[in-house]
Amino acid sequence: MGCQLGKLAASERRSNNQVLTDGPPPATDPRLPLTAKQKYSMLASWKGISRAMEKTGICMFIKLFEENQDLLNMFEKFRQYRTKDEQINSMELAEHANNVMNTLDEGIKTLDDLDNFFEYIHQVGASHRRIPGFKVEYFWKIETPFLAAVESTLGDRYTPNVENIYKITIKFILQTLVDGYEKAASKANPT
Predict the structure, then answer these.
(1) Are the CB atoms for 63 and 141 separated by under 8 Å?
(2) Please, where are the H alpha helices in 2-113?
(3) What is the pTM of this model?
(4) What is the DSSP letter of 23?
């Protein structure tokens, strides 16, 4: 009798709190290019990244500069650091890497609220208009270094499925940055 009562109480708690049942997962916002399961996997694996934000960010920027040496000149605070060792030990690069990773962290954490996600990432994209010499295509140059840094941080947890989810997510974030950058241009130069 106690077992049946416990099951009944548990089932009522689930229905009152709307805990997921055995049915399909709730639909995601159609603007999000991830399924509910992919979003869950993204958020779960991102916890591993969030515990190593600075390391991941520095790794990402070192890979960015290895592939795009010319972009180093865009960064006034640490452009003089030309070697990998100098970059690894640069407090200025670490600070910028943390800022970028915190932006990505905030973006990823708001995937459940896409209105806030778009508002925030559009603002970040628009803010790059104030950087002298910045070109919108520079946003895309971080994609490959980001994926490499995530792979390095996650290690064997970076499965082909997780890799696919990160590819979709970073493309979504970068496109949203581009949209914010371009929206700011159209507001500055209405036709």
Answers:
(1) no
(2) 2-17, 36-50, 53-67, 84-88, 91-109
(3) 0.84
(4) S
Q: Please state the φ and ψ torsions of residue 46, each to the nearest 5 degrees.
A: -65, -25
Q: How far apart are the first and last CA of the chain?
A: 75
The 10s digit of each residue's pLDDT in 36-87 is: 999 999 999 999 999 999 999 999 999 999 999 999 999 999 999 999 999 9
Q: What angle do CA 167, 175, 165 make, to 5 degrees?
A: 20
- Report which secondary-structure segment, H or E, holds 177: helix 160-188
Alpha-carbon dihedral sign for residues 115, 119, 121, 125 = positive
Across 76-106, b (16+ Cβ under 10 Å) vs e yields: eebeebeeeeebeebeebbebbbebbebbee
CA distances from 25 to 38, 51, 54, 178, 181 (A): 11, 28, 34, 31, 34
142 to 67, 109, 132, 157: CA distances (angstroms): 10, 20, 18, 21
Please give the C-alpha separations between residue 115 and each of 82, 122, 191, in angstroms, as whole numbers.
40, 11, 27
**Residue 162 phi, psi dihedral angles, 5° rounding:** -65, -40
Q: Given phi > 0 = left and psi -120 to 50 = alpha, else beta, which region is 21?
A: beta
